[in-house]
Amino acid sequence: MEIIRGTGVAEGVVCGKIRLIRRRIQTQPSQKYGGDPESEMSAFRRGCDVLTAELTVLGRKTKETAGEAEAEIFDIHRMMLEDEGFTEPTEHRIKNGMGAQAAIAETGRELAELFSAMDDPYMKAREADIRGITERLIRILNGTEEMKLTFDTPVILAAEELTPAQTLELDSERVLGLVTEKGSSNSHTAILARSLGIPSITAAGNLSDTIDGREAILDGARGILYVDPTPEIVEEYRNAEYAAGKPDTEGFMHNEVLHTKGGKQIRIFANAGSLREVKAALAAGAEGIGLFRSEFLFMQYDRCPTEEEQFQVYRDLLQTMGEREVTIRTLDAGADKQIPWLNRDMCESNPALGLRAVRLCLANPRLLYTQLRALYRASAYGNLRVMIPLITIREELEQVQRIAENVRTGLKNDGISYKEAMPIGMMVETPSAALLADKLAKKAAFFSLGTNDLTQYTMAADRENASVSYLTECMPEAVAELIRITAEAAAKAGISVSVCGELASDKNAIPFLLDAGITTLSVSPGQIAGTRKTVIRHLSGTGES
Amino acid sequence: MKIHEYRITDENGIHARPAGRIVQAAKGFVSHITIIMPQSGKSADAKKLFAVMGLGAKKNDLIRVEAEGEDESAAVEAMAAVLQDAGL
C-alpha cells in the first residue's frame, strides 16, 4: 500500500481505479533531429490516439446536439489523422531520426501545400483542416493542448492541476474522486469539485506515473489517498461508512424558513454554472440561485454565443427555478478563466490585475449588449436579477447601466417583452468597491460579496498558489473588515447583500456573516445542507464554537 | 478488373465529406481500388483520403473507378452506390 497525503478540499470517501493524466507526452521539443526514434514513434502514436478519442467524442456530442451533417467534419478529421497519406510520411521521417513534432509539422506542411495549390476554393479551404489537426496534434505532444477529460468508466482522476475549462467538463458520474499535485482549497478545481460533490485532494505533491490504473481509496476529508489499500484499511472505511451513514446533514434538507431573532429572513441559495448544477441545487433544497456563472455558456462555443442561444439557456434556467430568485452573473472571463475565441492575442504580464470580467466586457461593449439583451428577454420568464462582476469604480457600473438602458430602448422599439425593473446589481470583490460601498450602494440594486476574489485582492495572495495559502485560508481580518463596511453601506441604502464566495459555506465564518447583516448565503449545491445546519445552530444560539 | 465510369454532377465536386465516404467504403474491400480521371491522367488509391481529395474532381469531370482483386465486382458496385448516394 502507498499513502499519498495532500489537502482535503471536498469531503467524502470513494473507492476506484486511478486514472493519471499528464499534460505532457514526453517528446523531443522543437528539435528536428537527435531524438530516440522509438520513443518519438510511440509519442506520435499516443498523440494520435488521444486526438482520435477526442474527435470521436466531439463527433458524438455534435451529432446529439447539432445533427449528423455538422458532426461529419469530425469524422473527416479523424480519417485524415488515420490516413496513410498522413501517417506514412510522418512515420518515415521519425524512423529517419526526426523528432515527432517536427515530423508532424513537415507532413502537415506538405499536405497543406497540396491543397493550397488546388484551384478549387473549396479544396483550398481544406488546407485549414490539415493545418488545424496537425497543429492540434503538436500541441498535444508538447503539452500546450488541454487534455479532454472523457472516460469510459468511472475513475479517480489524478492530474497536475486542472484548467478552468477542464473543470467545467468534469462529469460527476465518471469522476468519482480527484487528486491534484498543485492547488489549494480555494482553487477553481476545489470549488467546482465541492459543488459537484466530488471528493478531492489538492497539493498532493509529485504523483508517480506508477499509480495509474491502480485501485485506491480517496478520503477527501482527511486528504489521504490509499493506493492499493490493505484489507485492513478497506475494512476500516467500510465500518466507518456504516457507522457514519449521513446523519450529519440529514434533517437539514427541508425547506423550513429561517429567521434571525430580529425577524430577518435568512436564505440559503446555491451557486451554479450549468443547468445540471441548477437541478442538483433544487434537489438539495436551494431557495434560489445566488450566482449563476454564465462563463460555461461562452466556453462551450468557439465563437460568441448568439443572443438567441443565450436567451434559450437563461429562459430554461428561469423556468426550472419557477418563482425562485435567480441571479445571473454577466461574463466573468479573463485572468484564470480564458475563453479561447475571446482576447486570444492578449498578452498580460499580470492577468489577475488586467482586462478581465466587467473590464473585458466594457472593452467589447457588443458582447455585453448581446448578453444583456438575452437576459432582459429572459427576465419575462421568472424572477431574474443580473449581477456585474468585478466593479471597481462607480463609472464602470454607470457605463453598464447606460448599455442596459440602450438594450431596454431597443427591446421596446422591437416590441419584445421584458421586465423593466429587472434589478442590476454588482459583486463586491475588490477592496476599492468595498471602501466605496456607500457611493456604489446608491447606484446598484444589490450587492453580492465575492469573497474569493475579495480575499485574493485584499491579501495580495494568489488562491491557486499553495505556498501562500496561509494568507487566504479561513477569513483574514482585513477581509472581515471589508465585509462589515459593505454590509453596513447596504443596510444604510436599503439594498440586499449576499455572500456567494467560499466563505458562505465556511462554518467558522457563517456566524460572523450573519451578525454582520448578511441575509443570503449562496453556496455550492453540495454545501446547502451543511450551511443550513450551521445557520440553524447559530440562530438558535447553539453554535459549536 | 472491374470498371465503373461516373460523371460528377455535384457543384462542389468530390469534396471532403463524399471523399470520406468513398474511402470508408473502399476500405471495406480487399481489392485494390483506383480512381482515375482520364482527362487529366490523375489517379488515386481510393482507400487514401488525401489522395482522393487531391484529385480535385469537379462538376462535369469524368471519373473511372477500377477495382482489381477477389471482391472486385462487389467493390465496384459499392463504389457506384456511394457515388450515387453522396449526390455526386
Q: What's the layout of helices and strands?
A:
The complex is a heterodimer of chains A (545) and B (88).
Chain A: E1 2-5, E2 7-10, E3 13-21, H1 37-65, H2 68-82, H3 84-95, H4 100-116, H5 121-142, E4 155-159, H6 164-169, E5 175-180, H7 188-196, E6 200-202, E7 215-219, E8 224-227, H8 231-244, E9 258-259, E10 265-272, H9 275-283, E11 289-293, H10 295-299, H11 307-321, E12 325-329, H12 357-363, H13 365-379, E13 383-388, H14 394-414, E14 424-428, H15 431-435, H16 437-440, E15 446-449, H17 451-459, H18 469-472, H19 477-493, E16 496-499, H20 510-516, E17 520-523, H21 528-539
Helix pairs in contact in A: 1-2, 1-5, 3-4, 4-5, 9-11, 11-13, 13-14
Chain B: E1 2-7, H1 16-26, E2 32-37, E3 42-45, H2 49-54, E4 62-68, H3 72-85
Helix pairs in contact in B: 1-3
Provide a descriptive summary of the structure in words.
- The complex is a heterodimer of chains A (545) and B (88).
- Chain A has 545 residues and is an alpha/beta fold.
- Chain A is globular and about 80 Å long.
- Chain A folds into three domains: 2-23 and 149-244, Phosphohistidine domain (Glucose Oxidase, domain 1), CATH 3.50.30.10; 37-142, Enzyme I, Chain A, domain 2, CATH 1.10.274; 258-539, Phosphoenolpyruvate-binding domains (TIM Barrel, Alpha-Beta Barrel).
- The longest helix of chain A has 29 residues, at 37-65.
- Chain A contains 21 helices and 17 strands.
- Chain B is α+β, with helices and mostly antiparallel strands and 88 residues long.
- Chain B has a single domain (2-85), classed as HPr-like (Histidine-containing Protein, Chain: A), CATH 3.30.1340.
- In chain B, 35% of the residues lie in helices and 26% in strands.
- In chain B, strands 1-4-2-3 form a four-stranded antiparallel sheet.
- In chain B, helix 1 runs antiparallel to helix 3 (72-85).
- At the A-B interface, helix 2, helix 3, helix 4 and helix 5 of A face helix 1 and helix 2 of B.
